Amino acid sequence: MSLDLDAPSRPPAVATLISALDRLEEIIDLENAAFEARGALDLVEINRRKSRALLELSRVMRGLPDRLDAATAARLARLKAKLDRNLYVIALRIAAAREVGAILDRALAEAESDGTYSAHSAHAARAGAGA
Known about the structure:
By secondary structure, this protein is mainly α. It has four helices and no strands. The longest helix is centred in the C-terminal third of the chain and has 43 residues, at 70-112.
């Protein structure tokens, strides 16, 4: 949780936003750290917490003033950077899962094939026809 010395001068909606940002950053930091360390992570729980944080942020946004102070804008920029990192880490995991899936698909296809239509059998048939 961050120490915010400007909090008393902020409108209540901005203070609520800062609290919501603290909670969301904690979730994102936890997920990023677990993914980067290849540690165990309860994805159902993380997704539940992220969904709740998104709902909370959408509710808070309705009551915000038109302009935010520089410190709050900086907090939003920091969260964006963390979300960009989160997107990158999740995209890496998805790409890895797709690659594993493709490897398994090829292995299954090779195991199920009887060789009738393989490149090797076509070459052998041409060699046999020319003999």
